[in-house]
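step=predict obj=Long-chain fatty acid transport protein n=428
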Amino acid sequence: MYKTLRALVCAAVLCFSYGAQAQTIGNAPYSRYGLGEYNYNTGNIRNAGMASTGIAAGNSYQINTANPSLLYYNSLTAFEIGVGGQIKTLQNATKSQTNGTANLSTVSLSVPIAKFWTSALSLRPYSDVSYDVTTTSRLNPQATATEAYKGEGSISELYFGHGVKITSGLTIGASASYLFGRITKESATSINDTEIPNSFTEQVVYSEKTRYNDLLFRAGANYRKKFADKLFVSAGAVYTFKTDLNAERNGGFERRSAFGQVIEDSLYAVDAKGDVNIPSSFSAGISIDNGSNLTFAADYYTQKWSGFKNFTDEQELVDSYRASVGAEYTPDANSVGNYFERITYRAGLYYGNTPYEFNNEQIKDKGITIGATLPFGRSTIYDMYQLNTAFGYGLRGTTDNGLVQEKYFQFSVGVTVNSRWFIKRRLE
C-alpha cells in the first residue's frame, strides 16, 4: 500500500502542476474585477458538502486545511485528490447564456510528525478569472461602437500547514502558502460606420498579461470541550495576514482583424513591475458533535476588500462577508448488512455579500449544498478508502439595475486514502 500511495501522490502532483494554471469557472463576468473569483472553500470536499463550513469541525479521516490547527486530528497519513466543476446560467433583463466546465481541483497530503503534531501539503486554486463580455452602443445615426472584454487565468496556492496539540482540547496551527499564477485580460474596440466602407473589419485591442507571486500566512486555533456524555463543543478561528503580491505586467496595443488575426502589434508596449495588496481576513466557527456520527457546524468569514489595491493602485472592491451552516451524519459506520448506513451524509446553507458592487448594489451570493462520503474497498486498521462527493446550487447577483445574475450548479468528486505509513516492526 505504501508504494501505491506514493505513486498516487507523484502522479497527482504532476497532473496538478499542469492543471493548476488551467483552472476555469466558465463565463463569470464579475471575475473581471480584483483578482477574480475567490475560492471560499479552503478545506476539502467534505467541507464543500457542508457549505464550506469547517473552521471548528475537525475530522480524523479527512484533511481539513480550512483551519491548520485541526490538522492535529489526522493521526494517519492521508492523501486526497478531487475534481470540481460547475454548470452556470447567466442572464440579464433580456438575454441568457449557459456554459459548463470541470477541472482537477485539489491535491492534499497530510503526515503525522509526532503524536502531538501533523503537517499537510496542499495545492488548490486561490482565485480564478474567466469572462467574455461584449457591449454595443450607438455613436450617431449611422455608426455604432462595439467593446469586447475578455479575461482568463488563475492564481494557485501551494499550502504548507501544521497543527499542534498544546493541552487537552486546545490545538493551534499555522500555514505558509505560495501564491502564483498569471492572468490575461483584453479589451477590444471596433467601429461600424455605414458611411465608411469596411470600417468593421478592424479592431484595436489592448492586451495585458500579469504574473503574480508571493507568500501568504495564516494562523489558527481550536478548542474542544466535553459538556456531557455525548456532547462536545468546539470553537475555532483563523486569521489570514495581509500580503502584497509581486506583480509583473506586459501589455500593449494591437490592430487585429475582425477574426482576431494580428495586423500590427506592439503599437504601444508597456512593461512594468508593482504589487497588489490583499487585505487580511478573519474566520470563526463553532461546531457541536456527539463524538461519533453527528456534527453541526457554523462559520462566519469576513475580509476587508475595501483595502484592496490593484496593479494601478485603484480600489475596485468592497468589504465582504459569508455566513454558513452545515451538518453531517453517519447512521452506523460499523454496519455490516446495510451499506447505506455506512455512508456519511452532509448538507449546508450559505449567504453573503461578495466584494463586487455596481450601481450602488452589492452583489449577494447564496446557495444550498449536499454531499456524501462513501467507503469503498477493504478497510482495515491500516488502510481506509473513501469516495467523497459534494453538490451545490447557488444564486449570485440580480438582473436589476442592468446587472447580471448567475445561477450555478457546482459539483466535486474525489478520493481520500488513509494509511498507516510508520509501523514499528518486531522480529520474533
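step=describe
The domain at 2-250+276-419 is CATH 2.40.160.60 (Porin).
step=end
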